[in-house]
Amino acid sequence: MKWNLRLAAANRGIWKASELQRMLAEHGLTISAGKMSGLWSGEPTSIKLDDLNVICAVLNCGVAELLIPEPDNVRKADDQQVAPAAAALNAPMVTPRQRNGRSLPPA
């Protein structure tokens, strides 16, 4: 996903992070300067849905304008490698056996 906050804000005449931060605070979302910098200039690793809701309300936009899908960047399951620990040890893959009843205590 591509984070598109800066462009969405610019389309509404908001050019500074501090201006958006003030507007968010007016709607009850207080964001620290560090977190605001990350939202404004980077791609946040996570964002609370409540925070996203306030951002959408302030910018009068939908989530689709803030989060742009990038399906070409998604890896398929077939492309993933074998578990690194098993591959590094050249260990055979472990497959669980079907259990029939109770196991015996150790000897």
Give an account of the 3D structure:
By secondary structure, the chain is mainly α. The chain is built from six helices and two strands. The radius of gyration is 24 Å and the shape is elongated. The termini are far apart. 7% of the residues are buried.
- Range of helix content: 40-55%
Number of strands: 2
Query: What overall geometry do the principal axes of the alpha carbons give?
Result: elongated
Identify low-pLDDT runs. Answer: none
What is the straight-line distance between the termini?
55 Å
Strand portion, in percent?
under 5%
What integer value in Å does the Rg equal? 24 Å
Oligomer description: single chain
Largest sheet: 2 strands, antiparallel
SS-based structural class? mainly alpha
Q: Secondary-structure element sequence?
A: EHHHHHEH
The overall average pLDDT, rounded, is 84
Quickly count the helices: 6
Order of strands in the sheet with the most strands?
1-2
Question: Which secondary structure elements does this structure contain, and how are they paired or packed?
Answer:
Elements: E1 2-3, H1 5-10, H2 17-26, H3 33-41, H4 49-59, H5 63-66, E2 67-68, H6 84-89
Antiparallel strand pairs: 1-2
What key attributes describe this structure?
107 residues, mainly alpha, two-stranded antiparallel ribbon, 2 strands, 4% strand
